[in-house]
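Ticket 4471: requesting a sanity check on a complex prediction with zinc ion. Repro inputs:
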Amino acid sequence: MTHANALTTHTLGFPRIGERRVLKWALESHWRGDSPKETLLDIGRTVRRQVLDDHAAAHITRPPVGDFSFYDHVADTALLFGQIPSRFQSTANTLENLFSLGRGRQIDGRNVAPLAMKKWLNSNYHYLVPELEADQPVVLDAARYLDLVREALTITPDAKPVLLGPLSFLWFSRGLDEPGRLAKAEALSLAYQQLLTELKALGVSWVQIDEPILTLDLPLAWLKAFEPTYHRLKVPGIKLLLTTYFGDLNGNIALAAGLPVDGLHIDATTTSDLIAVADRLPDYKVLSVGIIDGRSIWRADLGAILTRLAPVHARLQDRLWLAPSCSLLHVPLDATLETRLPPFLRKNLSYARQKLNELNLLARGLTEGWDAIALELNQAASARTELDNRLGRRDPQLRRKTDIIATQSPDRAEPFTQRAAAQQARFNLPLLPTTTIGSFPQTHEIRAARKAFKNNEITADTYETHMKAEIAQVIKAQEAIGLDALVHGEAERNDMVEYFGEQLDGFAFTQEGWVQSYGSRCVKPPIIWGDIRRPRPMTVTWSSYAQSLTPLPVKGMLTGPVTILFWSFVRDDLSREDVCYQIAEALRAEISDLAAAGIGMIQVDEPAFREGLPLRQKDWPAYLTWAVRAFKHAVSGAPSDVQIHTHMCYSEFNDIIASIAALDADVITIETTRSNMQLLDAFAEFAYPNAIGPGIYDIHAPQIPTEPEIEARVRLALAKVPASRLWINPDCGLKTRNWAEVTPSLTAMVAVARRLRSDLD
Ligand code: GLN
Ligand code: ZN
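Returned structure tokens:
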């Protein structure tokens, strides 16, 4: 076949933090005042140039432009259309204002709070939540955006500008209720149209417009808004590719297929019947099939994909476009930088750059025939076989074990009331007991010791001595403050998942597997490639040492199975449910060892519990069933007088409260300050039966809370939770704070608890 038949290939977005996180370092240096804005802008240009070069090297026909951001593309969209809360006193679309939205600013000596952050759908990317105001006019301020486009077009004339769609933008905003947000759709779509007209003038032909909300359960009013909104967006000469991802269109397929746009992108990793979608599409429209999983780090099964695509290609011919399922923002940049991983793993990884090559191979396979890519297909298949044959992922005993976990009762031996009595007899806690969430400030010395140990510069003994000294100091400090349930401080942990992954079989750690989390922050999730086993206890030394120093209870501190699962890149040959049970089984053994060592309180953190929720409500029950089951399997071997705590943050509980209650933790601590304790309403309405520790101050801010502030929050909590089941604690762990903030904050918290305690008695 000839080149005329070449398929269009494209990506919805690309990692923007740059090779070895150059943009991160540049941003942070700029924020510290160590480097001028010009340097930062230069690095941004270099990163964007590299993105275009990467696409060109892999023969991807339409690279994205405008997906880049110096902080967050949702905040950039808000700036593009002037939707900036008035407290910032400026809506100008400048870099400075973008940073203010993300980091807050000072105006006349007062702190102006940044926008809130929220996870982007069910991903681990945090976007800045735009705050809308009813009377704020929509004003297009596109210079920065158009500069990006101009810059890209001089290098790649086929570059495709990317925009977050108006309805998704409004849906993910706050500040106004649903009708209030929707009321902005008309003005907003006119501003989009104006922008498209300007893009047309630059010579752009295709524009990508992201409307991921089409994969959600949308209220009727929002569904109805699509038609008129997209009619208003029409600009002659500009073709729109409407993209959806992370889920299938389900009932929204007719709507999406019928909108006045020129192409539709669907996520083929979550859409089962591609032909059914092709059938719905008017025959002038392009179907972009997101065939390579944009959130997976594993090589694609090219052979299977080609088989799947063949009939779609036969039907659509060059109206078929190929792409990854979603923006590649959600995977790291380049797997060839992973020089330290064992070869069997390394050759099975596919990060963003590798996915570009896979995409190109698929396009060639379809147009030139399988033979043209036979070599690469064979390589892919044999790499995969090597991985699948590793003994470390084929343990039949563990398969049988997870089958049992999936069916047996996960309950603890006795119900909460009996356990509570046994625990009270053991701990004799006062009313309104005080505690913290686990970590204490990670000082420079702690980090230095961990690093030195990791680099073999100090012996295990020296390291242990360092950590024990730290634990002793943390215990002493907590006793001096007067807390009731202590923690060992988590000095030995760099990260709450990595710490466990490093000690469990089945995990691997990358050097360059960084993914943007928010702003300049990146995470490096471990890879779960094999069966998970716990060769030896992971936390018992630290916890028992801490407990040996004090008569007060010290909480053992573990990360829960659901959180370990969701904050890792997970193998794709087993269900998440099964992997989660494997983790639970390992944690169960740890809890048994902790209990045997005399640790009477054990906290199993599950901050990612809600994150695992599928996008559509109909899929929730299945997830919640196994997630609850995994947590319970981990903890249910604990004797009744061992008090199980759990902790969740950045969560809403209303719609999952029954599952939270089903976890049956003896105590749950949650982040509640920013909602001014409103999150407790779900617990009150449900008549949540176990103990709750609502956070009474925000640990993300450096400000030290005053006693009246704390007292007001505790009083709000007391109106919703009976005093007998109320704990008092901060919102979350304290590792990002310093002691000068922590000591007075906790001292104030304890003073309030003591005062209210004697009032209540
Ligand atoms: N125990 C952890 C800590 O205190 C909990 C962190 C979290 O909720 N993300 O740091
Ligand atoms: Zn937390």
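Notes from triage: The chain has a mean pLDDT of 96. Leaving this open until the requester confirms.
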